[in-house]
Amino acid sequence: MSEPSFTLAPFFNREVEDEYGFKIGKIVFLSTRDSRSEEFVLEALNGDFVSCPSFLMKQDAEKFVLMSPLKHRAERLIETIPLAWRKNQVLHEISGSKGLPSELFVEMEKEFRDELERLKTEAQDTLKSIEMELDKHARTIKELNSISIRLQVEHGINRIDTRSFLEVKDSLERGQRRTESMKGDLEKVEKRLRNVVLGETPVAEGPLFSRQPVSAKQKDAELVVRIQEVSERGI
């Protein structure tokens, strides 16, 4: 996944929201650790100063949106795991065409298998984190529903005036809609990640995988190009 590069001047003191419109704070500084690592320093609404990597920040019209680190990690795995599957598949195609020495095949197969297992292990850890987050969202929705009912009861027995009741009711409904949206989006990401872990999301083969007849020599050359292309696609 490509990561944006920023300079501070155009973004200083700009407001930051999450993906659901909830205000987080404002940008006060851009820290550059090295040529590939940038972090925004934000002043949160409670006055605390927090840092976040620039690749989690995206500009949306006149505001900045801070993406979920958990969703970003899951999306990266959704993108890279199918490529790891495909690298191993292409390697076997090369081996099948007798264009790869057996010793080199064993060495590369182990390398690709270890890489895939590492990504799958990371994916399982990410899925556990998603499950914990979904459980938290479910509890929050339940609590908000409980508070809403209690609020209606208090208003019904005239212990809360109508103006206060409507204000709190509106706030609770906004919180519930936001939490339900977060939960729904995370469930979709969870499903997609589980699919790629099971190998159910293949990588498009693209124009290099022609159906036209080719010679054995051309086929071997194409297979080498294929595995080089897959290796260069961000894994």
Descriptive account of the structure:
It is elongated and about 85 Å long. Helix 2 runs antiparallel to helix 3. The protein is of the alpha+beta class and 235 residues long. Residues 206-227 and 230-235 have low confidence and may be disordered. It has helices at residues 69-96, 102-156, 162-197, 216-231, and strands spanning 15-18, 23-34, 37-44, 49-53, 57-60, 63-66.
| Number of helices in the DSSP assignment | 4
N- and C-termini, Cα separation: 10 Å
Broad shape: elongated
Q: How many separate domains make up the residues?
A: 2
Strand ordering within the main sheet = 4-3-2-1-6-5
Helix and strand content put the structural class at alpha+beta
Radius of gyration: 25 Å
Helical fraction:
55-70%
Element pattern in H and E: EEEEEEHHHH
Major beta sheet summary = 6 strands, mixed
